[in-house]
Amino acid sequence: MNTCSYRDLREKVINGGYCIGCGACVSQSNSVGSNVLNARGMYEPDFASSESEINNVCPFFSDRSETEIAKTIFAATKGIRENEFIGFYLSTYAGYVAEDSFREGGSSGGFGTWVLSRFLSENLVDGVIHVKPSSGKGVLFEYGISNSIEDLKKGAKSRYYPVEFSGVLREVRKSQKKYAFVGVPCFVKAARLLCENDDEIADRILFFVGLVCGHLKSKRFADMLAWQKGIKPDELRAIDFRQKFSSGPASNYGIEIRGEKDRKAEILAERASSFYGYNWGYGFFKPRACDFCDDVVSETADVSIGDAWLPEYVDDSKGTNVVVVRNPVIQELVDSGIKSGALRLDSIPPEKIIESQEGGFRHRRDLLAYRLVLAEEQGEWYPRKRVEPKKDGIDERYKKITVLRMQLAEKSHSAFEKALKADDFEVFKTEMKPLLLEYDRLYRKSFASRVLSKAKRVLKKRKIRKIRDRLHFLV
Ligand SMILES: Cc1cc2nc3c(=O)[nH]c(=O)nc-3n(C[C@H](O)[C@H](O)[C@H](O)COP(=O)(O)OP(=O)(O)OC[C@H]3O[C@@H](n4cnc5c(N)ncnc54)[C@H](O)[C@@H]3O)c2cc1C
Ligand code: SF4
Ligand code: SF4
């Protein structure tokens, strides 16, 4: 068994800011540790003694990369292929669920809840471990178990919110039942590492469903969205980060907030774009761990599910999934779903999946290489990555954007604490303003340059050389 000391985990991972709060390290059967929310609104493990010896199942401390883990699970699967960016795959799709209300109730095309419901209805598992509205412990969402399709549906939708799974795994150990587990890529990796080290958990969890992931948010993200609309953090009761509207592109979804304003119940729903600080590029309240992560699509999951951020699909406000299947049992469910008309899925090449997450791959592959250089220059320890440190060949503007993004994330945590102390949301905005102005100025420039580069590539394909030459000097 691969073990490490809590002292090492604390010094390198937790103090270095690389802890995502998953709870894997406090999930061993005889664990003396606990996982609690810290001042930033992220989970963080704590052990009474720094000498505690723990299983090295940390996604940011284990030597096992996503590729190595995936190889032991999928490499021998008949018909499996491998891609540098999405890992192993049997098939890749874009589409949605046509039956029942899965699509309406989901964040994207509803495939997530559909495939989990098929596990239950086919008796492949007894329960699903996923994230649901919390039963009230000072947090809005938590990992829980659903044993029926009705329960499962109540837990649909993406939660941009801190969660951890050590509590739910305690329940899982108590029963002899079989489960499917849902998580973002680093959580799936952590759960897979747990299974490699822990026969009890390996016996219980049979399927892993991975969500494509841009980055996670601390609890403060939900607080910020509510507070700017007049609902203070301790008066926020519920939030739907992905409300669908009947028109407009799927990417311009809404946010619904429930809470209290001047002691009266308040419900508001507005387009995400109308909220200050929602722009994912700013990375407000992003844990540092997410800047040192290279798994965009959950490469260790049996099936990965994301949003089809592709021009062919994004205009449909009802939402469309991208799906990567790696497990033959899930492939059978998908095949029969397509045949019966329950699923409307188009077979697409892996390149289209990559295109749908273009920004995510740029940030977590090309620009991660640069962040590793920055960490090395500072003499900092950083987790083992599948990307080599590199600064050559990276556009100077992008280098500046990378640094600014890290500063924006870091500043958002401290600025929000300051605003809370002052009991004034405007303090947060004032603190963020200088960095935001600089970021917006730089980003606008590089965005314009990207649009022109893309236009040039299209024109090149069409061999319209004259026009391309005229555009050349503009970039
Ligand atoms: C933090 C985060 C970041 C994401 N970033 C991207 C991205 O950059 N690009 C992209 O294409 N897609 C991203 N997604 C995935 C996307 O938002 C949808 O979740 C996905 O497309 C599935 O939609 P659906 O309609 O098929 O699933 P649904 O039917 O809505 O089911 C979603 C399932 O996921 C579970 N779940 C929700 N939130 C969490 C969570 N935090 N941890 C574990 N389980 C959870 C729910 O309990 C439910 O079972 C992200 C999701 C999260 C949670
Ligand atoms: S990332 Fe997970 S396993 Fe690693 S230290 Fe944090 S809670 Fe523990
Ligand atoms: S970006 Fe990576 S580290 Fe951050 S939550 Fe997503 S999978 Fe985990």
SSE inventory with pairings:
Elements (H helix, E strand, L loop, with lengths): L2 E3 H9 L18 E5 L5 E5 L5 E3 L10 H9 L6 E3 L3 E3 L1 E7 L4 H4 L5 H11 L5 E7 L7 E6 L2 H6 L11 H9 L4 E5 L1 H13 L1 H6 E7 L7 H9 L8 E8 L10 E8 L2 E8 L31 E5 L13 E5 L2 H13 L2 E5 L2 H7 L1 H20 L18 H27 L2 H37 L3 H8 L3
Parallel strand pairs: 8-10, 10-11, 11-15
Antiparallel strand pairs: 1-4, 2-3, 5-6, 7-16, 7-17, 8-9, 12-13, 13-14, 15-16
Helix pairs in contact: 12-13, 13-14, 14-15
Protein name: Coenzyme F420-reducing hydrogenase, beta subunit
GO molecular function: oxidoreductase activity, acting on CH or CH2 groups, with an iron-sulfur protein as acceptor
Pfam families: FrhB_FdhB_C, FrhB_FdhB_N
Characterize the structure shown.
With 475 residues, this protein is an alpha+beta fold. The protein has three domains: 3-217 and 287-356, no CATH class; 219-274; 406-475, no CATH class. Helices cover 40% and strands 20% of the residues. It has an eight-stranded mixed beta sheet with strand order 9-8-10-11-15-16-7-17, with helices on both faces. A three-stranded antiparallel beta sheet has the order 12-13-14, with helices on one face. It has a two-stranded antiparallel sheet with strand order 1-4. Helix 12 (358-377) packs across helix 13 (396-422). The termini are far apart. One iron/sulfur cluster (SF4) binds at residues 9, 13-14, 19-25, 45, 58-61, 190. This is Coenzyme F420-reducing hydrogenase, beta subunit. InterPro entries: Co_F420_Hydgase/DH_bsu_N, FRHB/FDHB/HCAR-like, FrhB_FdhB_C.
What would you say about this model in short?
The protein is built from 15 helices and 17 strands. By secondary structure, it is an alpha+beta fold. β8 and β9 form a beta hairpin.
